[in-house]
User: Fold this.
Amino acid sequence: VSLFGGQVLSWRQASGDEVLFVRPDAVFDKSKPIAGGIPHCFPQFGPGRLPQHGFARLSEWSVASSSADPQPDDRDPEVQLTLSDSEQTRAAWPHRFQCAFSVSLHGESLRLDLRVVNVDSHAWSFTTALHSYFEVADLTKAAVRGLAGLTYLDKTQDANNPVRQTESRRQVTFEKAVDYVFLNASDYAEVCVGNGAYGATVEKMGAAISISSSGFPDMVVWNPGPSVPCHAQFVCAENAVAGEPVELQPGESWRGQVALAVVDRPLHASAA
Assistant:
């Protein structure tokens, strides 16, 4: 976990296999956001008045608490990070806030818990996302399932003027660049990553990452396509508040939770 950006950069299975993806061209000198892992988009998702995806991924977070108990029956290993407004953030976004982000390992799952509190004297609104990059073994076999029948905003051609569509397929695939915001998504989706990505136990079945969430109404699916040389190595499936902002009155808070786990799944499902 990086304090710059408050960002999870790696999550390995017991086999040693990596689940997340950090781009080879990622920069770690704090001059720009780290491209990969699970970046924060806050207080703005996508383009807008602030820089793309807001300032949280460019901010230095603080450690509020941590535990690393080796006993499986004791407290889960966890770190809690915090981010509060500063003169710099208020110059760009004139609101007082507190964010608390906890990252914990529970059995074989990775749990993420984001809380946002309005500590100002007036109401304000925000959008947000956990911009998860998942490593894939084969992009031609990769897919995101659990989004069939949903309305989505297709931002592939123009992020500022998305085209409203309905997903007719059982799964989203990646034959081309993809930038979709699925509105009012369910609290469960799966990213199928291709054959044998996570060790010999799944090499005949394929692997999927299950994504269980609460508080995040939307799901963003993104892959930049061939314009990015490493595009065939990852897909992004992002739990988000993107369609409609959350408004918080003074003293109010919002909470979003995500649990990730690796599960065995068949490599292909009908896209019809």
